[in-house]
Task: inverse folding
């Protein structure tokens, strides 16, 4: 296994800040309001208070209320202070999602056993496919306008060519059935967004997406793959592919 402190450090550093969303970042927390097409409530993505946790949490909630939102997703991450989960529950937080923090040592170039699947990197021509698969797989979000689809695809293609990361799609009989992404952070490959449409599950498509991303990561010098997998869906697959769990993170839905 990889050293637990190394995985924890890399996990703590991983926070997505959307270019077209609103981000409030202080010494105590990171709060994100997502673009409308993501279809998710604002999220408290990091909570590492410098002083009194209750006061810092109250300040974060007040900032979220200023957005006139009804709900907030609060993540209790590995680096959260002791007692934070109890504080969230005391405020009425209801468990929304649980993920395992998985990591895989890529030093030996491990191979993922997967069937041959037609795979394509995201570009302007299939950008809508990538979004629609994600909506079907995760049952949230909406297709953005054409301009947004275009610049999202252009950014993804530029990142892929520069070695910064990539978006990959899986097709069956010419139809998009799976999508996933990865972002390079130094020698760590952050794997995210792996999803398969319900009617195509159980055919090894997720594993094919995983194999493609690990292949890209190895080509660009990654020594570790990091992924936060849902306990009820991708988690069992990741374990079978050699990933080890280094703890769990939980998201709570909190009414504002």
Result:
């Amino acid at each position: 296994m990889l050293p637990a402190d190394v995985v924890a450090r890399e996990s703590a550093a991983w926070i997505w800040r959307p270019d077209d969303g609103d981000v409030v970042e202080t010494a105590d927390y990171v709060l994100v309001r997502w673009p409308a097409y993501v279809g998710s409530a604002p999220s408290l993505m990091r909570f590492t208070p410098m002083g009194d946790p209750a006061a810092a949490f109250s300040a974060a909630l007040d900032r979220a209320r200023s957005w006139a939102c009804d709900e907030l997703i609060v993540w209790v991450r590995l680096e959260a202070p002791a007692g934070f989960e109890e504080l969230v529950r005391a405020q009425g937080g209801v468990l929304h999602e649980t993920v395992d923090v998985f990591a895989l040592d890529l030093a030996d170039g491990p191979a993922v056993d997967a069937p041959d699947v037609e795979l394509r990197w995201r570009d302007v021509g299939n950008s809508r496919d990538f979004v629609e698969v994600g909506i079907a797989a995760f049952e949230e979000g909406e297709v953005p306008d054409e301009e947004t689809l275009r610049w999202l695809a252009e950014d993804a293609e530029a990142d892929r060519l520069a070695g910064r990361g990539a978006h990959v799609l899986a097709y069956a009989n010419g139809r998009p059935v799976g999508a996933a992404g990865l972002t390079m952070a130094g020698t760590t490959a952050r794997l995210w967004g792996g999803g398969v449409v319900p009617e195509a599950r159980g055919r090894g498509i997720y594993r094919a997406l995983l194999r493609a991303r690990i292949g890209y990561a190895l080509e660009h010098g990654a020594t570790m793959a990091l992924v936060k997998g849902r306990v009820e869906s991708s988690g069992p697959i990741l374990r079978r592919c050699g990933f080890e769990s280094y703890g769990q993170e939980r998201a709570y839905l909190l009414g504002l």
In short: The chain has two domains: 4-100+251-255, 108-222. The longest strand covers residues 94-105. The CA atoms of residues 164 and 184 lie 5 Å apart. DSSP finds seven helices and eleven strands in the chain.
